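Open question from group meeting: does this chain pack into something compact, or does most of it stay loose? Before anyone orders reagents, we agreed to write out a predicted structure and look at it together. Recording both the input and the output here so the notebook holds the full record.
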Amino acid sequence: MNTKGHCYPKSIILQAVYFKLRFTLSYRDAQEIMKMRGASLDHAAIQRWVYKFTPLLESEMKKRKGRVGASWRLDETYIKVKGFGVNIIFRFNIIF
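Structure tokens returned:
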């Protein structure tokens, strides 16, 4: 993620975008949280950063996300609890 040309360091920009997206705050609420953390920002700047960096962050997260395998394992057990039979099924997902 290239933040060259911005007035704030990459850590501040990422933190503001994170708060906005993670906690579904309004831009003014995100501005207030960043102000409490020592960064005096404008809510419009946070909005521009969200529009600009969200697609980049999304593509980075998709690269890091683990794939779900096509193979599944199933284990079934029958036990008695207080005289009643109970089937317990365990399902395992194999990740490549």
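Observations to bring back to the group:
Residues 10-64 form one domain.
The first strand starts at residue 72 and ends at 81.
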